Structure formats: structure tokens, C-alpha cells
Amino acid sequence: MASLEPTTLRGDRVVLEPLAHEHHDGLVAAAADGELWNLWYTSVPTREGMRQEIDRRLALQDTGSMLPFTTRLVEPGSGGPGRIIGMTTYMNIDRDTPRVEIGSTWNAASAQRTGTNTESKYLLLRHAFEEFRCPAVEFRTHWLNHQSREAISRLGARQDGVLRSHTRAGNGELRDTVVFSILAHEWPMVRDSLLYRMRPRG
After folding, report:
1. Which site from 38, 143, 146, 182 is most exposed, i.e. has the minimal number of CB atoms within 10 Å?
2. 1: in domain
3. Is residue 3 part of a domain?
């Protein structure tokens, strides 16, 4: 497995930067875009909880179990990094297999359904399969989060199963977790499909 050091992944729409404390204010503004902390089916920090969430993710990075990123838009014209729109990670990292889960992802409401999430997932998948040489990449989501389940399926991931009463949601209720994965031999077809979807139209 390639070294899991913090790295920057660049696309045409987004840049995934290693999470850092100086991203705090931009992340607070991104979460406020849509008041994402009110979504019952996912966990997005409030203004008061953002610093603690950054600390949590960086602590998991120190243990080797997570590689967190801040998602930025690419500035039109200059191609440089623009405003922060969210967070994403490689998590539950298994170095021996090697295997990663892509998760703990959220994006500002105004950035949703604009192609930014598709490109973010493409960048993370490409790095996992082509640099880390993972035989599989996993995704998990709440059974009742139909938007997330549909988005994961559109990526080309297949459902592995459902972990019933798997963990507690932010409101304390037990949740069923749906597990998806993409295997290494499926990546070329998934890659080509994502590249087609991201191709400029018109």
C-alpha cells in the first residue's frame, strides 16, 4: 500500500486538501449553507462543534485510521482553490488488505447536484485504486438516507448488505447501515462511466 500521508487531490471542479485547523471558518460557513446540522440522517457539526470535529478527524489521522480532506471549489478562470464547500475522508483504513471506506462526507447545500460530489468521489476512488492498490473500496450510509444510497449506486458501487441496528444516529436512535463496495476489477468501467458523466456538455 502506498504511503497514507496527507495529499492534495485536484480535479476540474474541486480540490481535496488535507484537513487543517485553518479551514475552520470556511467549514463553518459551508455547514451554514443549508443548516446541514439539522439533517437527521447524517452528522454535520454546528458552528460550536466544528473545531472539535476537526480535532477528532485529525486525531484519527494520527492513529492511521483516517485520512481527512477539506473540499474546495476550483476558482473559475484562475483554476486556483476557491471557497470551502465541505469535508470527506478515507476512513476505517485497513493497511494489511489494503482497504478503505470513503465516508464522513458532507457538502454545502448550494454545491449539491452540481457535479462536485461526483468529481470528489472520482478523485478518491482513483487514488485508492491506482495509488493505494486497494482490492476494494467501501461506502456506508443510513438505510433511510435514500439520496445517499442512490448517489452511491450511481457511482457504480454494488450493495453488499445491510447491518441492522448497527450503530446509533445523531439523535440516539439505532440505525440500519447499508454497505456498498467497488472492487478493483470493476474500477475501469466505473472510472469510464464517471469520466463520461463529468465531461462538459454543450
Report:
1. 38
2. no
3. no
Q: What is the mean pLDDT of each run of 10 residues along the chain (202 residues)?
A: 79 96 97 84 86 98 96 83 94 93 94 91 96 96 90 94 88 88 97 92 65
* Any domain includes 102: yes
User: How far is CA 90 from each of CA 7, 29, 120, rounded to the nearest angstrom?
Assistant: 12, 23, 12
CA 100, 103, 108: angle at the middle one, nearest 5?
A: 150
Full domain range(s) for residue 51: 9-198
Number of domains in the chain: 1
Give the long-range contacts of residues 92-98, CB within 8 A, separation 24 or more: 92/65, 92/66, 92/138, 93/4, 93/64, 93/65, 93/66, 93/67, 95/1, 95/4, 95/64, 97/134, 97/135, 97/136, 98/1, 98/132, 98/133, 98/134, 98/135
- Whether this prediction's pTM lies above 0.90 is answered by yes
Residue 132's identity, in one-letter code, is F
